[in-house]
Amino acid sequence: HMGPQSVDREVDSVCPFCGVGCLVTFQVRDEKIISVKGREGPANEGRLCVKGRFGMDYIHSPDRITRPLIRKAGVAKDVALLEGHTDWRDVFREATWEEALDLATLPLNRLRQLHGPKSLAGFGSAKGSNEEAYLFQKLVRTGFGSNNVDHCTRLCHASSVAALLEGVGSGAVSNPVRDVAHADLIIVIGSNPTANHPVAASWMKNAARRGTRIVLMDPRITDIGRHAWRTLQFKADTDVALLNAMLHVIVTENLCDETFLRERADHVAELKAHVRDYTPEAMSVVCGIPADTIREVARAYATAKAAMILWGMGVSQHVHGTDNVRCLIALASITGQIGRPGTGLHPLRGQNNVQGASDAGLIPMMYPNYQRVSDKSAQDWFEKFWDTKLDDQPGYTVVEIMHKALAPESDPHKVRGMYILGENPAMSDPDLHHARHALASLQHLVVQDIFLTETAWLADVVLPASAWPEKTGTVSNTDRTVQMGRQAVLPPGDAKPDLWIIQQIAQRMGLNWHYVGAHEGVAQVYEEMRQAMALTMGGIDWARLNAGSVTYPCVSADDPGQPIVFHDHFPTQDGRVRLVPASLIAAAEQTDADYPLVLITGRQLEHWHTGSMTRRATVLDALEPAATACMHGAEMGRLGLQPGQRIRVASRRGHVELALRQDNGTPLGAVFIPFAYVEAAANELTHAALDPFGKIPEFKYCAVRVESATAA
Length: 712
Ligand code: SF4
Description:
It comes from Limnohabitans radicicola. The longest helix is centred in the N-terminal third of the chain and has 19 residues. The chain contains 25 helices and 28 strands. β14 and β15 form a beta hairpin. The protein is α/β, with parallel strands linked by helices. Bound molecules: iron/sulfur cluster. Iron/sulfur cluster binds next to α1 and α7.
């Protein structure tokens, strides 16, 4: 309702929510963002979803932390407080930056001296900039002295990345989302793009209208199913059965692209032999999809002129997540559906910068650009580059670090001190009872965030950080496009840019870091990071990025960037794709008489991840104010439950109470709960079993019991 005259200024930036990476213009009046416009970006062309358009006032929430906070002497780290309504003043007192930074860092130094570098760990954030991710991992590696650094990629696509690095030599997407316009057929598997990548979903719907056939494969039928040519609602946990049966059809009906396989793939014979037993008839019994449908879809995919596969966490968050993705790589490879427009493999990245944070080395087994810490030549290079000695042992991953925090005193790798920047493991980790106790048991916890998250409640020192629109930095979206976010408003009170805080901690750990220039030296940090990533981002200097988005790989100033990769070779050692057969592995926890239903967790359109931002965004909170579980009407009828009533959902690890909503897209025998609500935290219920390769937890499958809350 406001004319342009009522805006003080407009600032071009990027949406801070999902990995689609829509470009935005923030409209500022009286130092507040009063509205957001979609800008012409490669991923969105002016489009925005409800979060990007109406979700930005979280930054002006009265809940923002505006002063450094110190835990009061004698106040225990009580995990029960997380669900109560305690006043923060009962737990923390305000402090100056000087005092807080000293109190944050001195105990870290002491623990390192007493117990060695591996007694410390750090979680960085996929919601910050590339520069913050790069500097944070550099701090852990060179200041803490180990590779105990990770972030939420471990909870979303770690298994996809493991399979992709093994198979095609790169963890990123091969084709951008908007290539769906060039595809005859797209497979959308284990993904609810309308809720989680809404603008990406809008391109899929546009393509469908122009004749692209969408094949939705998912245990939950979500909104995109309305646009699908075929919907395969397979039984949860049976991805490999369905995909191997498709491979079987393609192999036995001679639909393989033999030229492609001869010239560009390894271990073809093993794969073909392996899938021989996975007949559609046999696998139909396992996955619940009729054999004829499996045949029809396999033929359509193999014979399409161009076909693309896009997937989400329904694929990755299983103990067989890596195997699921191995099957997808095999499908694309044996049919030659890769390396051309409208083909390829696209793991839809969740957080706005999970691609960039991973690229920047915010992972325990790799330096920037996926160079393995165990590779001597990579270690030598970074030792020289950073002028320090580095640990050649991979660090622990997110869930492993939580286990290590609860390890016995005698464990030489017991984690005792942590620095957590912008992540909320007290909500996002599986089996929260365990994770929260692990965080509470730390001798020293420093949390840097914009709100008193559930994790911050357990901290010794809380450092008030900046929200995305309050700082300048770059992010890399799901398409590998690097984009510039610019400061639109100042952080509130004494809150500081994250890049400044990281450098302050580093200086107190003995590192002589003084990045210079505007916004805490962000351009200088970027240029240092770019040197470490010459093979992907060497051609994208700060000035170029300031002028517009660039998609890597881009190795020189005149390289326009490459939205589509793998035209004629893969970035593996021999340039060929490696096919890896997968066998059936069941979920780590099965249903039984006591816990007869499957719990599927996920997200919803209005709320982002652990809810710390979106539940403080007025419009989004008004749209979805309360936690709800979804069940099929027939399942509700069987259990004598009514829509709208409160239910109690219990697993072997905990229980939650929340309202029930009817959703006939949720399969029979299952309940779906979004994990954004602290008052009914879905991860109280989930199981911490890990995929052995990606170390990702099995968020998509555990056993629960559902009953009326009043009867319980
Ligand atoms: Fe933001 Fe993603 Fe929505 Fe685009 S689709 S506006 S990036 S949340």
